[in-house]
Amino acid sequence: MVVAALLGVVAATTIHDTIARTRPEGSRASTLSIMLGVATLTTVWSDVAVRTAHLDDAIALAAAAGAAGAIARRRPWLAVVLLAVAAGAKPWAIMFAPLALAVPGRDALRRLAALAGLVLVGWLPFVIDEPGTVHAAASFKITNATSSALRALGFANATTPAWVRPAQVLFGLAAAALRVRTGRWHAVLMATVAIRLVLDPAVHHYYTAGLVVGVLLWEGIARPHRVPVVTMLSAVACEATSGAPHYPALAGVIRLLFLVALVILAARTAPMPRRGTAAAPGTDRRTAMGRVRARAGRRPLALRRRARPATFP
């Protein structure tokens, strides 16, 4: 319980640092927005740390947040290790694997191979001891809740359909890979967790923490000057439709529509600026402006005079 609570602090602090490094605004409004988002995360994290004491989920979410922070610091190999920790704690966290490719470089494929190797090493002792582990994890069945998004989609099976677990991973990996490929790595956690919840037959309260982690990371970077309305709405919508609501069918529809809206937001969000065209992740704006001025200072005097009115009106 204590460890899970501390991991919540780690996740919140890491997300705050990632947002600050990726979008260093330096204004009180931006700081207030981040603090409101972190407060929302802290509130829903209690379901993971206290009410259910799901240490495995806490490890996976904190490691995923740490991987995003490593990407912002341009430390891709640290991200690889943290992604392996996340997948080792919760098999569904393998959906975050494409984040290993978020930082461009010639060693991108080696990073992905290393991640696969680390995940296999982590799970190999369990598979050797009990060869049915993989099948059990893929075919684990739970009750299909009447308020689940899966039922709202029209799948009224009493328990988990056999195709659900593989579909969650495949669709999650595809969405994550596409987000990374299009420069929207900051939306990976939001998109993949939302897809998982759309196809999940359960509606546990502790699921909310994973969704809020992803939405907070995305919103803090994509909407840095605004109140984190989407993050707070995610917490409210997911909590209100979890457990045993009074109108389960309506709750399932609301849950489905909200999660699909998050997936669409992840697809339509503005991509991160490419290195060389804007401040790179982890680069302070003063440093970037200093480089621009230094380049301008190396120009011939005549060109500098001609360019000055257009560049610095």
Automatic annotation (TrEMBL):
<keyword id="KW-1133">Transmembrane helix</keyword>
<feature type="transmembrane region" description="Helical">
    <location>
        <begin position="249"/>
        <end position="267"/>
    </location>
</feature>
<keyword id="KW-0812">Transmembrane</keyword>
<keyword id="KW-0472">Membrane</keyword>
<feature type="transmembrane region" description="Helical">
    <location>
        <begin position="108"/>
        <end position="128"/>
    </location>
</feature>
<feature type="region of interest" description="Disordered">
    <location>
        <begin position="274"/>
        <end position="295"/>
    </location>
</feature>
<feature type="transmembrane region" description="Helical">
    <location>
        <begin position="78"/>
        <end position="101"/>
    </location>
</feature>
<protein>
    <submittedName>
        <fullName>Unannotated protein</fullName>
    </submittedName>
</protein>
